[in-house]
Amino acid sequence: MDKFAALISSFRYPGPRASGLHAPLKALVEKKKSIESRKLIFTRAKQYAEEYDAQEKELVQLKREARLKGGFYVSPEAKLLFVVRTRGINAMHPKTRKILQLLRLRQIFNGVFLKVNKATINMLRRVEPYVAYG
């Protein structure tokens, strides 16, 4: 067998010789990637922790300022609601049924996320016996 045929056969059928040359290099590259990804994960976690600490400190500061001024701190209301339909359609007023359709709550135990505004609050008041939300 000449050199050219041996070279072609090693490319076609990678044996222990062909794969053995690159294995340590691959392992080194994989190890380096995993170290970099762990560093990235750690820095992101540290950044999130710092953000949450800053939010906590700001909340404490706002409460202190309100107490010094003789008032109370009222936290802002939620901007998003999750609404679940809990009752069926028996003996339901047509307007209530229409509101449930507008809220995309056509079946029992369906749920939707809603943005809180005056219109959705008014609709929820009308259908309160048929839904649970929070």
From TrEMBL:
Domain Large ribosomal subunit protein uL30 N-terminal eukaryotes: 26-75
Keyword Lyase belongs to the record: no
Large ribosomal subunit protein uL30-like ferredoxin-like fold domain residues: 81-131
Keywords per UniProt: Ribonucleoprotein, Ribosomal protein
Transmembrane regions listed in the UniProt entry: none
Statement: the UniProt record of this protein carries the keyword ATP-binding: no
Short name of one Pfam family: Ribosomal_L30
UniProt cross-references to InterPro entries, sorted A to Z: Ribo_uL30_ferredoxin-like_sf, Ribosomal_uL30, Ribosomal_uL30_CS, Ribosomal_uL30_ferredoxin-like, Ribosomal_uL30_N_euk
Gene Ontology CC terms: ribonucleoprotein complex; ribosome
SUPFAM superfamilies recorded: Ribosomal protein L30p/L7e (SSF55129)
Sequence similarity: Belongs to the universal ribosomal protein uL30 family.
Family annotation (PANTHER family): 60S RIBOSOMAL PROTEIN L7, 60S RIBOSOMAL PROTEIN L7-2
Protein name, UniProt field: 60S ribosomal protein L7-3
UniProt source species: Zea mays (Maize)
